[in-house]
Design brief:
The protein is α/β, with parallel strands linked by helices. It is 32% helix and 17% strand. The chain binds NADPH dihydro-nicotinamide-adenine-dinucleotide phosphate (NDP) and oxalic acid.
């Protein structure tokens, strides 16, 4: 098996020794767009240029160095190329940490206390009543399932929504478009961990956000394309939404001067909710390449029909 490293934004020297150690029988090379085709069988990629596919016609599988495959599906790949995503690989626990941090910052008022400290004011707020802070998690997959369980462990009421029915301990689950209004109406803090697909693009808009409980807060760790940013800003300014914690944006990096940078009730982070961990990613991808070499089926293969 010939494995190609085709991640122009990652330093191959950080990745190749670990890959070669896990795959001693494979030839491993770095994509060289100016050289002849390598004839590699599979490639490791993260947002690769479209030229890769034309230049490397022998590729049969792309191993994505992330969980979200929207960028690859947007490339209109030939149907014989399999897309394989990372499954957890150490990201789900980071996602749970991030969602808990954002929830606690909103529910316990830590953001507000930062402002009080800056003003030199000692002004305690009433204690937290968890039943007033039900959390709804959109997406109950590798990331969302872990997020929902972590929040439930802190005794917040937790609801979860997915495409097909799911069961998560301690979480009231809903599925499909029919059950979405009930899920939204019982949710105060909405955590988005959906994949970006044609069905989910732009779905977090005025209509959806208006169905949340009063004093609602949005935590978006899915993709920027899920959220209608103009609707979000309008609802924040109208006081219909109390706040938002945003890790992902329509355009990344978030452009200078964008109103989300400076909105007093928006907390911005630069797409760091869950980072790809090199050792875990190498171990998972190498195990799958060994399975492929033995002619075995692998998990984490994206179906273009579902879009994730
Ligand atoms: P999974 O494929 O494991 O889970 C996706 C979940 O979303 C499933 O529960 C699925 O339902 C549900 N879903 C998909 N489409 C719909 C729909 N139309 N209606 C209702 N539910 C739907 O993905 P992961 O949990 O691994 O990752 C989720 C996303 O998180 C990634 O695609 C990426 O965008 C984002 N991400 C962001 C990171 C960051 O740093 N900000 C890091 C990593 C990931 P079902 O269970 O029925 O299949
Ligand atoms: C991912 C991401 O999809 O980093 O893994 O956003």
């Amino acid at each position: 098996m010939h494995v190609l490293f085709a991640c122009p934004h990652n330093n191959p020297d950080d990745w190749l020794p670990g890959l070669q150690a896990e795959l001693p029988d494979c030839r491993i090379s770095v994509w060289d767009p100016s050289g002849p085709p390598s004839n590699a069988d599979v490639a490791l990629v993260w947002k690769p240029p479209a030229a890769l596919i034309e230049h490397e016609p022998n590729l049969k599988a792309l191993f994505n160095l992330g969980a979200g495959v929207d960028a690859l599906l947007g490339m209109d790949l030939p149907p014989h190329i399999q897309i394989v995503r990372l499954e957890d690989a150490g990201m789900a626990v980071q996602m749970a940490e991030y969602a808990l941090y954002a929830l606690l910052r909103a529910a316990r008022g830590f953001g507000r206390y930062e402002q009080e400290q800056a003003a030199g004011r000692w002004s305690p707020m009433p204690g937290l009543r968890r039943e007033q802070w039900p959390v709804g998690v959109l997406g109950l997959g590798e990331m969302g399932g872990r997020v929902a369980q972590a929040i439930a462990a802190f005794d917040y009421p937790v609801l979860g929504w997915s495409r097909s029915p799911r069961s998560v301990e301690g979480v009231q689950t809903y599925a499909g478009a029919d059950q979405l209004p009930e899920f939204l109406g019982r949710t105060r803090v909405l955590v988005n961990v959906l994949p970006l697909t044609p069905e989910t693009t732009g779905m977090i808009d005025r209509r959806m956000l208006s169905q949340l409980m009063p004093g609602a807060h949005l935590i978006n760790v899915g993709r920027g394309g899920h959220v209608n940013e103009a609707d979000l800003l309008a609802l924040l300014n109208e006081g219909r939404l109390e706040g938002a914690t945003l890790d992902v944006f329509d355009v990344e990096p978030l452009p200078a001067g964008h109103p989300l940078w400076t909105h007093p009730r928006v907390h911005v982070t630069p797409h760091i909710a869950a980072s790809t961990l090199r050792a875990e990613a190498i171990a998972q991808i190498s195990a799958k390449i060994r399975q492929l070499a033995r002619g075995e089926a692998i998990s984490g293969v994206v179906t273009s029909q579902r879009g994730y």
